[in-house]
Amino acid sequence: MDNTLILYPIMPVVFLNFFVVFHMRYVIEKAIKKREVRYRWFRVYEGSAPEYMLAARHHYKNFFEMPILFYLLCIILYIIDDVRSLDLWIAWLFVVFKFIHSYIRLTSNYVPNRAYAFYICVLLLLGGWIYLAIRIL
Residue 136 contacts by C-beta under 8 Å, 6 or more apart in sequence? Predict the structure, then answer.
C-alpha cells in the first residue's frame, strides 16, 4: 500500500483548523465592536467575556490538543512505512467525526451530541495508537 495515503487525512483537519482560526477572529471582532469585551481582557484572558467568544476560543484551543496526537500518529505511520487499510479507515473516520464535532460546536453547541463526536474521535485515536503499538512491539 502507498504509505503517502496516510498523509491525506491530515489536510482536511489542518484546513478545518484554519477555518476555526478565522471564525474565532470574526467572533472576537464582533465582541469588541459590540463592546462586550475590552482589549485588556486579552492580556491574561481574565475577567468577563461573552459566552460565544469563549466557546470559539475553546474550540480553537482544542485543535492543539487531540489533533496533535492524530498528526503524530499519521506521520509515524508514514515514516515507518507501515500504513495498512485499517490505519486509513481510522484516520478518515477521525476526520469525519472531527468535522462533526466542529459543526456542532460552531452551530448548536449541544453538549451531549458534541461529547459523542468528541469521544468517538478519542476512541478512534486510541485504537489507532494501540494498533500501531501492537505492530511495533
Answer: 80
